[in-house]
Design goal:
With 44 residues, the protein is mostly helical. It has one helix spanning 2-43. The chain crosses the membrane at residues 12-31.
Length: 44
Amino acid sequence: MINISYLKTKINIAPSIEIILMMGLCFQFIFKASYLYTYSNFKL
């Protein structure tokens, strides 16, 4: 039982960190894209 719970916590913690990193990268990409989009619109 201890080994199973340990594996579950390892499996649960690792993907959550990866998801947080991926969300951060996606947020940065969306923010940069929207910033460039608005900047180009204001320029035009």
